[in-house]
Specification:
Helix content: over 70%
Keywords: Cell membrane, Membrane, Transmembrane, Transmembrane helix
Strand content: under 5%
Protein name: Transporter
Distance between the termini: 61 Å
GO cellular component, one term: plasma membrane
Number of helices: 21
Subcellular location: Cell membrane
Largest sheet: none
Membrane topology: Multi-pass membrane protein
């Protein structure tokens, strides 16, 4: 068996031909659309469930709901960062490297990589869980109630690293269904436990909100176990097929476990930083906003925590539904781009990047602008009527476009082995965020952190986009043309939605949850029809989603 050094960055000029398959393989665009559809379905349903539980959850806390929301947000922001550290970016790196080896017909090497990663994830889970548990007092922002909440989130860190690695392995084969379904089951199990324990503590035992929030965050452990069981079932089902691929693989690479783990960690470092990008920006808000806002607004500490939760918890929960669309596309793009990069297919790379950007704009822009249009009834349904909360949700919806764009571009940069540049651009954006944070809070008060985030990640996204264009000569004329059509349709949809919403609220009560639900259904439905018609009429849907959409247009008799 010949030896080959593990390549740190495969050359785009070196083309490695896999064995010819008898069956025709789906195109890169078809894989992208199919994978994005699965991941979007799983992520969206998971996020929607994660938002819907807020309605009964907040109601059970009554007058203490604002403090409970703030406490939950403090715990989860820290947990999110530890979650990325505990997985060490390994799942994304595994998806990327497995796709790389599969493109070389080295399926057995990919399996070896997976087995090595399992051991590493078990160790990382134990270390990160212990670390979070013991440093909780120092991370509590001086709030003693936050300590048990943070510590309850140490337990899921024991499970999630291994669970995430298994998801990454499936994604390396462009098999997104197990990840999507396990994500949905994870959320269902988590919410059932969360609501049941909150009801038991607050309504049956008449306990305090800190205990209820602690159990609500511990629910992440219950969800992780359920998800891992689902992934294990899928793994057993697909193992025989993977074994067959391994037996027939080229097997010309001879890489030691040590070299493999070293390469895995090297590839994982960018995932750690970039996957935690949005969380890092939110942590800047967590440790600065409450300290600084008192210099520009009068109020008590409790008032400042309530302002903080308006954008860090309440609005963030809803806009992350739309951001999850970008996350789904990002997960799909990494193995596809890595595969094309390994094969040296520059034409396919350019087309995939163009298609991914267009698909992102096609979905994300109307979703974000649509959420801004229905911010009033949406916020009322989830949290009760709040004028300031509604304005923050609307503003956050626009910021979500920048968050989503950063997520997709960062994933592209990693899939194309542009790790150092991606990290550099993120650090530049973070520095910009830190520079403008104080003046933005001074100028815009509670909207300041959101504006600072938009500016910082906007700079990062611009630098990433410019780098991709310089290296792969993107078809910007076509992208801009389609973006203009999408923006026009989305703005038209926004105008229709706002007019209808204002008309309905002239005789309906905006403070009523039931009547707000009626307004939301009518306005969102008509908005979707307007945007869908514009996309079909202009044939942009055909260009972005493929020729199958033409059949839908003909059936609807849209010329």
């Amino acid at each position: 068996m010949s030896k080959s050094r593990l390549q740190n960055e495969p050359s785009v000029n070196k083309k490695i031909e896999p064995e010819q398959n008898i069956k025709s393989e789906p195109t890169a665009q078809e894989k992208m659309l199919r994978g994005s559809a699965w991941m979007t379905a799983g992520s969206i349903t998971s996020r929607i469930l994660g938002a819907l539980y807020i309605i009964p959850w907040v109601a059970m806390f009554g007058a203490e709901s604002g403090q409970a929301n703030a406490l939950f947000a403090i715990g989860y922001n820290i947990y999110s960062l530890f979650l990325v550290i505990s997985t060490a970016g390994i799942p994304g790196a595994v998806a990327k490297q497995v796709a790389h080896y599969n493109a070389m017909n080295e399926y057995s090497t990919g399996r070896k990589l997976f087995r090595s990663g399992i051991y590493l994830m078990v160790i990382m889970g134990i270390v990160s869980a212990a670390l979070l548990y013991f440093v909780a007092p120092w991370l509590s922002t001086g709030n003693p109630d936050a300590i048990p909440v943070i510590r309850s989130l140490a337990w899921p860190l024991l499970i999630i690293p291994v669970m995430s690695l298994v998801r990454g392995f499936f994604q390396g084969y462009q098999d997104m269904a197990p990840s999507a379904i396990s994500q949905f089951i994870e959320q269902v199990a988590r919410i059932i436990y969360m609501l049941a324990m909150t009801f038991w503590i607050m309504r049956v035992l008449h306990g305090n909100y800190v205990s209820a929030v602690t159990q609500s965050t511990f629910a992440a452990f219950i969800g992780a176990i359920a998800s891992l069981l689902v992934l294990g079932w899928y793994f057993l089902r697909k193992r025989s097929g993977w074994n067959e691929l391994s037996r027939n693989s080229a097997a010309v690479l001879d890489i030691s476990t040590r070299d493999m783990l070293t390469e895995m960690v090297r590839q994982a470092i960018p995932f750690i930083i970039l996957d935690a990008g949005i969380t890092i920006f939110q942590l800047v808000d967590q440790y600065t906003f409450i300290q600084w806002i008192g210099r520009f607004m009068s109020g008590t500490k409790a008032d400042f925590y309530n302002y903080y939760q308006l954008f860090a918890f309440s609005s963030n929960k809803l806009i992350m539904i739309t951001v999850s669309l970008a996350s789904s596309m990002a997960v799909t793009s990494i193995p596809l781009l890595s595969e094309a990069f390994t094969k040296g297919d520059r034409k396919s790379l350019r087309e995939q990047i163009d298609s991914m950007l267009e698909l992102f704009f096609f979905i994300m822009i109307p979703a974000a602008i649509g959420m801004a249009a229905v911010a009033k009834p949406l916020y009322t349904i989830f949290y009760s009527y709040n004028f300031t909360g509604t304005l923050i949700l609307e503003f956050s919806s626009y910021v979500a476009i920048i968050l989503g764009l950063f997520t997709v571009l960062a994933a592209m940069m990693q899939g194309l082995y542009q790790n150092k540049k991606a990290i550099l651009y993120f650090v530049i954006g973070l520095i910009v965020k830190l520079i403008v944070q104080y003046p933005m809070i001074a100028l815009l008060k509670v909207f300041g952190p959101l504006m600072a985030t938009a500016i910082g990640l906007g700079v990062t996204s611009f630098l990433m986009m410019r780098s991709l264009h310089q290296r792969f000569d993107l078809n910007f004329n076509e992208i801009v043309r389609r973006l203009a059509g999408i923006l026009f349709s989305a703005i038209l949809m926004y105008g229709v939605c706002v007019i209808i919403e204002k008309g309905l609220f002239t005789f309906l009560n905006p403070a009523s949850r039931l009547q707000s639900m009626l307004v939301l259904i009518i306005v969102a439905g008509l908005g979707a029809v307007v945007y869908g018609y514009c996309m079909l009429r202009s044939r942009l849907a055909d260009e972005i989603l493929g020729e199958r959409v033409a059949g839908l247009r003909r059936r609807l008799r849209i010329k």
